[in-house]
Amino acid sequence: MGKHFLIWLMILFFTPLALPTILSPKTISGYIRQDYNGAITILGGKEQINLDLIALYKKNLTAVAAFANEFRDRHDDSNKFRNSGDHIGEAIADIPGDWAASVKLQAYSTALRVVILTKWGIWLVLPMVMGLLVGVLERRLKLDTFSPPIPPIYNTSAHMLLAMSCMLLLWLICPIPIPLSIIPTIAVLISIFISLAIANYPNY
Q: Which of 5, 77, 90, 162 could bridge 81 with an S-S bond, Cβ 3.0-4.6 Å?
């Protein structure tokens, strides 16, 4: 379990750093548009979403934009190659500007997804709380009926719980194109694995 946790920790650390290099600003903009349109369709309240999004971005993520702009201003030499006819040099010189734009869009995507999660709020937490209660009650029932916990079910549930939780966190901080309708399903699956893990935790 510890090794799997370290692997997921590395994925959560390196993926947000690598994606702005891999994905173009146009691609990330498309993912943001999909999330935004999906949020309006599912949640409604376009004006309130816009207000919350702008407030969250200005309050917490403007430092990211400032860092990206500073990096672009220091390293972007695209103007020198714009009319030189050196297409390879121009493409290389555009990399800092594209990277900075991707970083700012990734921060904007994170802000949008945080707003979406806060709008869902209780509807995502409630299944997990129910899974916790069901797991506790089932474990108590096992103790009362002398039914032993099943370690393989616990191990599988614990690993799936770790994977689902990290996937949700990865979706939050990275512009991964996962449809919004999948997120409540992930929350329900997390609640199921919470219940199974608690009910089958080994008695050492």
A: 90
